[in-house]
Amino acid sequence: xxxxxxxxxxxxxxxxxxxxxxxxxxxxxxxxxxxxxxxxxxxxxxxxxxxxxxxxxxxxxxxxxxxxxxxxx
Length: 73
Fold this sequence. Notes:
The protein has 73 residues and is mainly beta.
């Protein structure tokens, strides 16, 4: 786990003219799986961020993302 800051464009009045708002988050990398064609090496296939304070409107408290295998687009 690691603490960090997520910067989100508020898109006001437009996304090109918007400013970035900072939100405190906790970042967790998890679900280690074997790295294809690299025996004995693993990578984390999931990333979850958890808002620890204010968060953007309509944003869930936590979001999880699936990460691609290293070396793949």
